[in-house]
Design a protein that fits this description.
By secondary structure, the chain is mainly α. The chain is 43% helix and 8% strand. Helix 9 packs parallel to helix 11 and helix 10 (191-207) crosses helix 11 (215-223). It is globular.
Length: 231
């Protein structure tokens, strides 16, 4: 496992804190595979940097703040055996076992993960097919254009918007707003989840080249928060 919270000397003797994996991923990507296999207390440490973009380490000798504005990418199986939903029907995990496994990821941490996507298993024939899709160069160009739009509109990326800026730049149209209200009521979202969905919908609209956030953008953003648990 990556020592993602060891932002201190290996001696644990109260020496000066040193950057660990969280800070070393600053302005980059922190990828955690088999997410539920990490200790719960280790995963909970991610909550602070995901919210503030920095991590504070306190030791006997001193306290230090490290930059930690990274993109978290994580992967996990749907159950301990990994076959839940597989076309072979190999999974023998009971609902209680599946729930306990998925509950290793706390609600507050899930609240900070903007996109939660379930990837289904493929059959042998599907694996053999040539996948249709866009080239990386095409996608990169679209992302670059969307980022330039964000810089021109608000002088920062969408993920850095404050609450007031979200109200100004991410407000959906009337139909999209009604859809969002329905989702909030049905899924019992927190204020944090609400603002994150708005920022994600704004980003989806930017990638589509849309000036305003519409119903289709809000609907897509909502779907990205329902893969693991509806919280």
């Amino acid at each position: 496992m990556l020592p993602i919270v060891q932002n201190y000397t290996r001696s644990h003797s109260g020496g000066s804190p040193r950057p660990g994996e969280i800070s070393l991923a600053h302005c980059g990507v922190l990828f955690l595979d088999e997410l539920p296999e990490f200790e719960r207390k280790v995963l909970e440490v991610l909550r602070e940097p995901l919210e503030s973009g920095q991590i504070t380490i306190s030791r006997a000798a001193r306290q230090a703040d490290f930059p930690a504005r990274f993109q978290l990418v994580a992967a996990m199986n749907p159950c301990p055996c990994g076959f839940l939903g597989h076309h072979s029907n190999k999974c023998r995990c009971t609902p209680d076992i599946v729930a306990r496994y998925q509950d290793r990821i706390s609600g507050p941490l899930l609240d900070r993960i903007d996109m939660q996507i379930q990837v289904g298993s493929l059959t042998q024939d599907e694996l053999m097919l040539q996948a249709d899709g866009e080239s990386s160069a095409t996608i990169s160009a679209r992302v670059r254009r969307a980022f330039e739009v964000q810089q021109a509109r608000q002088n920062k990326a969408n993920n850095l918007l404050t609450t007031k800026e979200i109200d100004r730049h991410c407000k959906p149209d009337l139909v999209g707003e009604q859809l969002l209200k329905s989702a909030i009521s049905r899924l019992n979202w927190s204020a944090r989840a609400y603002h994150r969905v708005l920022k994600l919908a704004r980003t989806i609209a930017d990638l589509a080249g849309a000036a305003a956030v519409g119903q289709v953008h809000v609907a897509e953003a909502i779907q990205y928060r329902r893969a693991l648990r509806e919280r």
